[in-house]
Amino acid sequence: MAEHTSSSITIEAAPADVMGVIADFARYPDWTGEVKEAEILKTDDQGRAEQVRLVMDAGAIKDDQTLAYTWTGANEVSWTLVKSQMLRSLDGSYVLKPAGPGSTEVTYLLTVDVKIPMLGMIKRKAEKVIIDRALAGLKQRVESGEK
Q1: In 4-118, which residue ranges form alpha helices assigned H by DSSP?
Q2: Least confident of 16-25, 45-54, 60-69
Q3: Backbone angles phi, psi at 58, to 5 degrees
Q4: Gap between the Cα atoms of 22 and 91, Å rounded
Q5: Transmembrane stretches, by residue range (predicted)?
Q6: Rg (CA), the chain
Q7: Rounded Cα–Cα distance for residues 8 and 140 (Å)
Q8: Among 32, 48, 83, 108, which is most buried by a count of CB atoms within 10 Å?
Q9: pLDDT at 1
């Protein structure tokens, strides 16, 4: 079984506001450093994204990937890889928990398997950087009040 990497952050906003930013894929290029394009390919009967194409540029690593999203209640979303040029597999999730009045603890879990050989230690460090950047960007975006 692949090892996963996770990290948490507290955001000064209600869970619904945090999930609103997470679910707004069209705006990802505005606040995530690596996502250059995001296109919703398929939605569920509630209008939430089921499949999203992301064009990523993380410096040395560039990728065009499609992810399938599963929404569990109002406070959890997970995703799995449908196709990618660089990755063999990718599984991730955001889990939101109320953390007192007007704040939310967000936990990001990520497991990545790349097609090119990479030492486990280096892969986990890269996963940690991806997670920490994503959480910091999410926190900044939500707390700035931008929609």
Answers
A1: 15-23, 28-31
A2: 60-69
A3: -115, 50
A4: 16
A5: none
A6: 15
A7: 14
A8: 108
A9: 41
- Give the chain's end-to-end CA distance (angstroms, integer): 38
Instruction: Match 């990618």 to its residue by tokens.
Output: 84
Q: In the numeric block, which tokens belong to residue 44? A: 């569920």
Taking alpha carbons only, the member of 49, 2, 10 closest to residue 142 is 10
Beta strands (DSSP E) in 19-103 are: 35-43, 49-58, 61-72, 76-83, 87-98
Q: Which of 9-13, 60-64, 88-92, 104-108 has the lowest mean pLDDT?
A: 60-64
| Tokens linked to 101 | 């009045």
Place of tokens 């967000």: 106
Using alpha carbons, select from 10, 6, 5, 7 the residue that is nearest to residue 97: 10
Coil, helix or strand for 126? helix
- What percent of the chain clears pLDDT 70, i.e. is strictly above it? 84
Tell me the per-residue pLDDT of 93-135, one tens digit each, with 9 for 90 and over: 999 999 989 999 999 998 877 766 655 555 566 666 777 778 8
